[in-house]
């Protein structure tokens, strides 16, 4: 029998880090075992579900490369099926109509709380047949009253819940719409889900869902409840901790490879290995080696992974991800180096793709002002002679290659009998506007001859002007 997992988000917000990790674990488990990964949008909460959230979830999944084999299914399109199942349970005596008013249920709860008991529905309509014909009703599942439900959780281990702890759950509201636990059960059953991998905030629903599945004669899937993610401060990860939506990480300049690698390590390990390619993960991932304890988010580690992938992925691949940031920062790259070349020159020097674009404008755009600090330090009267000499030598260069530029700079230092420092920094400030750039030969070769010479002119004028003041 082939393995089927699913990711079943409620579209009430972004695809957040916790959801993305759950999706990743389900995806990996399916891929590892050659199974099927289904995407199911649980949009039955009409008030809180939005199309925007659906789009954000799909976008996030796509950005992370978590492709699904079936779906997306939408629960709102499956109401007829849920109604049929509710009718079937009712017909078989496995569910019943409950005519309690909201006030009655409330009074029941209050009395139980006052008596120090756990508030729960007391089953008062479970066996009654004197049904009124003119009153609204909900439909409740007839939960077994004895015995225990055992979850053999693939992450948390064995969990036992006494049926006496569970009351008769509402499976259809008075307007006939199905409730959350019913829709999940019907879908897991009809979609042939073999492994339910989800956040452990659902662990309380599981025994109820297992009972309903059993009543339907359905196969009970295996369950794996993934512990929650905590923020740096030990509290449950939330908006307070900054970026929570997956696409926010894209916007902040992270590579999907880095975020995926980061997410998988939140709750899963393989010895002390930290770096995993996607292919490697598909081979190595297993639910047995998932952590039972919550894991804490660590932004420094994510940054470290991002730097790793910026440096080690094929530059073409990084360049592809850079395009979005070029557009976001409105940088016109029609004049200047190809993005692949830019990545080769800058990837080692920055933490994120966003930063890469921020510090690379001078490759594409001219500037009229120098960074004040750098100019003050390096475009002084003593820099005039070296700048003029290097400009003359560069102007004579026919082949504007990295090696040729390199030789010219060295030869100029020799010619003037000065150290590289006397030429290098003024030259850097002249062509980039500031004091930070990759090696000069690379920088100049990427900026191009005409632009470099024009900028040198501009710097020479600046120094002259300054000398005369
Ligand atoms: N729709 C639920 C959620 O987003 C997940 C349900 C499940 O995985 O069973 O929390």
Automatic annotation (TrEMBL):
Task: Extract one GO molecular function annotation from the record.
Answer: ATP binding
Q: Which residue numbers delimit the Aminoacyl-tRNA synthetase class I anticodon-binding domain?
A: 318-460
Mainly localized where? cytoplasm
Which GO cellular component terms are attached?
Answer: cytosol
Q: Which GO annotations describe the biological process of this protein?
A: glutamyl-tRNA aminoacylation
Q: Which stretches are transmembrane?
A: none
Q: Where, by residue number, does ATP bind?
A: 239
Q: How does it assemble?
A: Monomer.
Listed name of the protein: Glutamate--tRNA ligase
Q: Which organism is it from?
A: Rheinheimera nanhaiensis E407-8
Q: Which gene encodes it?
A: gltX
